[in-house]
Amino acid sequence: AIEVDMSVAMTGSLSVRGEVLPVGGITPKIEAAIAAGMKKVIIPWGNLKDVLLDEESEKKIEIVPVRNLKEVLEVALSSLSKKKKVFIEKMAKIFDSEIKEDMRRFPDIIDSPQPAPS
Fold first, then answer.
1. Has residue 118 been placed in a domain?
2. How many folded domains does the chain comprise?
3. Are 65 and 45 in contact (CB under 8 A)?
């Protein structure tokens, strides 16, 4: 088994393509992670500009912005073993192959903007 580092908090939204997307309330979420004793928090890259912490709070936690699931796994999984590296590479290949398959099967849907739900 590959263990998740229990001193790492994370927030964000994950797309079907493995992209980590921004979420609301990023500063209160980081403050909650600090209060819970977390040492590191993984946030969406797109939320980095939204973080508003005082200097004292910034010293208490490492903020790690990520763009995709592969980056999340690299930070969140505690072991630096070969097993971890193999797992991360397999996950990256799965997402890559799924994206390519979706683009092949549904090019008109992927390439054109979709209307917002009403």
1. no
2. 1
3. yes
The structure tokens 């054109």 sit at 112
Span between the terminal Cα atoms of the chain, in Å: 44
How would you class 65 by CB atoms within 10 Å of its CB: exposed for 0-12, middle for 13-18, buried for 19 or more? middle
CATH number of the domain encompassing residue 22: 3.30.230.10
Query: pLDDT tens, position by position, for the chain (118 residues)?
Result: 677 889 999 999 999 888 999 999 999 999 999 999 999 999 999 999 999 999 999 999 999 999 998 899 888 886 666 676 777 777 777 766 665 565 566 555 444 455 555 5
Give the sign of the dihedral formed by CA 84, CA 86, CA 92, CA 94.
negative
**Domain for residue 67, yes or no?**
yes
The answer to whether 66 and 43 are in contact (CB under 8 A) is yes
Which two tokens mark 53? Answer: 């912490």
C-alpha 52/C-alpha 107 separation (Å) is 40
In a domain, 3, yes or no: no
Structural domain boundaries, residue 24: 8-111
